[in-house]
Protein 1
Amino acid sequence: QVQLQESGPGLVKPSETLSLTCTVSSVSITAYSWSWIRQPPGKELQWIGYIYHSGSATYNPSLKSRVTISVDTSKNQVSLQLRYVTAADTAVYYCARRSAMESHFDNWGQGTLVTVSS
Amino acid sequence: DIQMTQSPSTLSASVGDRVTITCRASQSISSWLAWYQQKPGKAPNLLIYKASSLESGVPSRFSGSGSGTEFSLTISSLQPDDFATYYCQQYSSYPLTFGGGTKVEIK
């Protein structure tokens, strides 16, 4: 059973960089594509971007200028960096596995709450 | 971006009821639609993909239908474990987008 576990600081100051890591267990990250998705408190889900098993990435245009998603194959981890954060970036951040065949998400991490505040 | 509109936003129902949730896309997405269930404090869980394909392990009381711009998720007989929020997601084009959610509450 694949497991995804997000980790990182729960509090980030405005204008700084949010950095999160997703550790994947029971499957090689090179076998699938991976995504980050966020959910502001009480609001809907927002897709942040994908990193494909090829190593290339696709981002939501609304966040593209501030986002980088990368992989560390030696650690079986997927990482998210979001620069110049504001209070609007406060959310639960999820990593999720893209289905092998289509662009829906068949496995999710438990999520981690990141609050942007001074 | 493709906008996904769910209705109703909240639904009150009783155990045993047949429940239908609707999701409308702002342009045609063929059958590239998924449905998720989310419980408080938990991650979403995939129920349906490609509009009508049931994910492995999901009870058969869940079903999906539709194509183009109109889709629905039906729970044939609501169970206590089904009280949750449901989201649709289109994956026809980037950026991937989700609906605003439908909360199914106990009547």
Protein 2
Amino acid sequence: SYELTQPPSVSVSPGQAARIACSGDALPKKYAYWYQQKSGQAPVLVIYEDSKRPSGIPERFSGSSSGTMATLTISGAQVEDEADYYCYSTDSSGNPSFGGGTKLTVL
Amino acid sequence: EVQLLESGGGLVQPGGSLRLSCAASGFTFSNYAMSWVRQAPGEGLEWVSVISGSGGSTYYADSVKGRFTISRDSSKNILYLQMNSLRAEDTAVYYCAKESGIAAGGNEYFQHWGQGTLVIVSS
């Protein structure tokens, strides 16, 4: 199955930029998507098609993609941004896959 | 406002069956593909199955192929997941998710999620 690789954890202080990477062989040709999941809650889409932000998502959330790496950046991370973040994409055949998730700690 | 409400989870013995439902509202149900995604306790997200807006196309993860069946009733705006031959490793919260378009697979993604229903497979 298609593998998307994320770091297990990222830690930043409030106000610092948090960057979460996601690597996958098909990312040069496939979009990356990012989901935020707070404890005990359902996932929420925060970035779609590499860099687009859904309505209602704060501007401090941004995404980029280059080669086999997609990156979610939270500029000026806040305590309420503490959550698990999952990248999502598909392989060249359209088979869906999630990354293993990254636990973001803001303290 | 898009609303997705799952139901049907519970405790079931290994080898047993369960049918999950997802009641959808706030959008034209038949215009969107729908998926099931699960999350085992303390683990990450795993896509399970997708069905196109028309119901004519369905796809499954290898881990559930031949055991699970996805279906939809557009007259009632309900998505289903029939789960047979359940195993301990099927224990998870099952989320239904509205996709971004009508087709199953391709460049669609999960736009909205329900709150999930917990399935526990244990004797």
Protein 3
Amino acid sequence: AQTVTQSQPEMSVQEAETVTLSCTYDTSESDYYLFWYKQPPSRQMILVIRQEAYKQQNATENRFSVNFQKAAKSFSLKISDSQLGDAAMYFCAYRDDKIIFGKGTRLHILP
Amino acid sequence: EPEVTQTPSHQVTQMGQEVILRCVPISNHLYFYWYRQILGQKVEFLVSFYNNEISEKSEIFDDQFSVERPDGSNFTLKIRSTKLEDSAMYFCASSEVGALYSNQPQHFGDGTRLSIL
């Protein structure tokens, strides 16, 4: 069965600095999709970024980028120029039709 | 941008009562999902639904749970006899395609907070 592991329950970063959230996963599939979702205090689930496993190029969305290491089954999220609005719970997720979520990393932004 | 909408935003129910959570998926989407998030825990898959039948369900989705698409627009989750441990945030999601080899994300609703007293 596929699993997703986020080893950092909480992290803090100074506003305008860069932070990296870690995620590892386990699967026997060769083609799959990985996502990072953001959940602010309002509890919505907001898609941040997605990565196709067959693409070697790391996905980027404005200040958000990933470091996808397929052989290592690692999928970290880098947030550059952190803003107060980035404070949220971040979930790494693997899609196997249904989505399998990690336990999340709570990110605090320090002014 | 089209959204998945869920009603109510908060539901308070006595233990043992039936509850129905409602979702309106994005109109051209064909695959529907329910997830649950107990406070402080991760989001867990409950059930997926396609072509008017359940595609997959988790061990959480026991006989007390059922899903229905009664009228072609709503997608409902019913809990027949609620228990205290059913208290959670319930998220509905939909996607245009559900095939494994697809990069289309699931779009989530804002969730329904279910509180069982």
